[in-house]
Known about the structure:
The chain is mainly alpha-helical. The chain folds into 4 domains: 3-100, GIY-YIG endonuclease (3-Layer(aba) Sandwich); 108-160, no CATH class; 167-233, no CATH class; 236-292. It is 41% helix and 8% strand. The chain has 15 helices and 3 strands. It has a 3-stranded antiparallel β-sheet with strand order 2-1-3, with helices on both faces.
Amino acid sequence: MKTTFIYGLFCNDNPEEIRYIGKADNPKDRLIRHIREVKRNIKINKKLTHKENWIIKNNFNIGYSILEECDNNVWQDKEKYWISQHENLTNTSNGGIGGAGIIYTLTYEETKKWVKKNLNIKSKSDWYEKTKNNILPDNISRNPVEVYKNRGWVSWIDFLQTNNTYDNNVNYLSYDNSKLIVRGYNLNNIIDYKSQVKKGCIPDNIPNRPERYYKNRGWLGWGDFLGTNRVANQNKEFMTYDEFKETINSLNIKSGYEFNEKRKDIRKINEKIPSNPNIYYKNKGWTSWDSIFNRRS
């Protein structure tokens, strides 16, 4: 299963207040790029966004926290959820569309026509290779799946109009029958599955993208499909607030900022520690990081 991250940006002087929420496979690298993009836009005199003005106002003294690690196939819904849980954000959309809040007004069909007329692209990989150097106009997203997920998206074959066979025209096995066969391969994750697909080991009557084909046909996640039964983040049981407070102090953590920096290592020590305690314990005793360390706010 390929995972990604929903992250929040904050000023390092006030790490408890999230001011921007986004998605990134590498949040640390994305933080660096946020800062670089602002400096570049200042240099070329480009109109700045609310987020960029906020970054400038705080003298680029910003950090990030991981709100959730999730399956890359569901990040849009996760991003929308976290945006809905915060006030006073600098986001310019409700989330789930990519492009740092850019709103693409062209319809799916209009975008398809433009791509067909102006670009000679034959596949998904060809699309990302040819568009990585910003050859697209501002009203065409480099991530059409994210933009049109709930606005007409069918498939890459349909979007690029390559006239290949559609998933929906193939007589695939039912979800239950497919997973019975796939479980016999003893695969651990989505990467293993894709590897078997490339080797031609997956039968033709089982889709290469089962999460897409079975989405409304019984799909319960990669853990169920492969038989690994891994628990999704939202279903994990974390320690109580008092246990968290005691544990963090025993680890000699001195601030919320330090916790965010060492979060990955801390969770290796005890996976029942939530990644975002300020959110998880919001109505379960949480007041502030100062209360965790018995300091006055």
